[in-house]
Amino acid sequence: MSILVVTAVAAEADAVVAGLPTSVGLTVAAVGVGPVAAAAGTARRLALAEAAGRPHTAVVNAGIAGGFVGRAAVGATVIGASSVAADLGAESEEGFLSLDDLGFGTPTVVTADPALLAALRGGLPDAVVGEILTVTTVTGTDASTAALLARRPEAVAEAMEGFGAAHAAAEAGLPFVELRTISNPIGPRHRDGWQIGAALSALTAAAPAVGALTAAR
Ligand SMILES: O=C(O)c1cccc(C(=O)CC[C@H]2O[C@@H](n3cnc4c(=O)[nH]cnc43)[C@H](O)[C@@H]2O)c1
Q1: How far apart are the CA of 106 and the centre of ligand 1, in A?
Q2: Which of 127, 128, 143, 129 is closest to 206 using CA atoms?
Q3: Domain extents in the chain
Q4: Are residues 204 and 19 in contact, defined by beta-carbon separation less than 8 angstroms?
Q5: Residue 135: CB within 6 Å of ligand 1?
Q6: What are the C-alpha distances in Å from 18 to residues 22, 62, 78, 108, 159?
Q7: Distance (Å) from CA 62 to ligand 1 centroid
Q8: Is the dihedral of CA 77, 81, 85, 87 positive or negative?
Q9: Which of 3, 47, 1, 31 has the alpha carbon at shortest distance from 207?
Q10: What ligand 1 atom has the least distance to the C-alpha of 67?
């Protein structure tokens, strides 16, 4: 299996690579912050690999994330059972309307590939498994945290790329899973308190389980 691992920034890609055995045939690329960069960067890399006759056969989105308090603590590893477009939709007087509510045909939720999910769970038995939200604005107040949880009560973490990378994988007909490590609690913004080093170390520790996916399929 030829896996494409996409991250947002180089520090995340470096953290993944640092945890992989040198022999593992896996491509790790930083494609930019946000769902648009993730979708475009993932789609381009998938297309180039296919055109070169070395198509990727699965996509993993890896990186740091915010964790909902009481569900995913700073330093924890989170495996996405699904990646959710949490703020893509429309406002109305009755509340937020999701992509599903609007009926455009693009689903709000991309479910992780069952085999990739099971393999990652096996390799990371202490990981939290659940819904990871994709947002275009980092949540930074108690009010918006509560609104997000009212909208997606099962969510465990939020980041900014999963849904975009998942959509690119789905367009290519490829299995997908999102893997995150928690750098900060979701809530009132205290950027100085983000424990990015701890999250990147956790990403390095989780990387062997990603590398093992190459043998799993
Ligand atoms: O400043 C650094 O050294 C540094 C190192 C690695 C990564 C970063 C980023 O800022 C990555 C941006 C990335 O972080 C995700 N993220 C993390 N926490 C949250 C959150 O609470 N809400 C939404 N996204 C979060 C996100 O996926 C961004 O792409 C900096």
Answers
A1: 26
A2: 127
A3: 3-215
A4: yes
A5: yes
A6: 9, 13, 19, 33, 22
A7: 11
A8: negative
A9: 3
A10: 21
To test the pocket of ligand 1, the residue of 16, 33, 64 to mutate (highest count of ligand atoms within 8 Å of its CB) is: 64
DSSP string, 121-189: HHH-TT-EEEEEEE-SS---SHHHHHHHHHH-TTEEEEESSHHHHHHHHHHTT--EEEEEEEEEESSS-
CA of 159 to the centre of ligand 1 (A): 7
pTM value? 0.96
Q: Is the CB of 183 under 6 A from ligand 1?
A: yes
Bridge partners (DSSP) listed for residue 29:
6
**In CATH, which superfamily holds the domain spanning 3-215?**
Nucleoside phosphorylase domain (3.40.50.1580)
pLDDT digits (tens, 9 = 90+) for 61-119: 999 999 999 999 999 999 999 999 999 999 999 999 999 999 999 999 999 999 999 99
Ligand 1 contact via 198 beta carbon (within 6 Å): no
With CA atoms as reference, report the closest residue to 122 among 23, 208, 2. 208
Smallest CA-to-CA distance from 139 within 84, 86, 197 is with 86
In this predicted model, what pLDDT tens digit does every residue of 167-214 receive, in sequence order?
999 999 999 999 999 999 999 999 888 999 999 999 999 999 999 999
Residue-wise pLDDT tens digits, 16-43: 999 998 767 799 999 999 999 999 999 9
Q: How far apart are the first and last CA of the chain?
A: 6
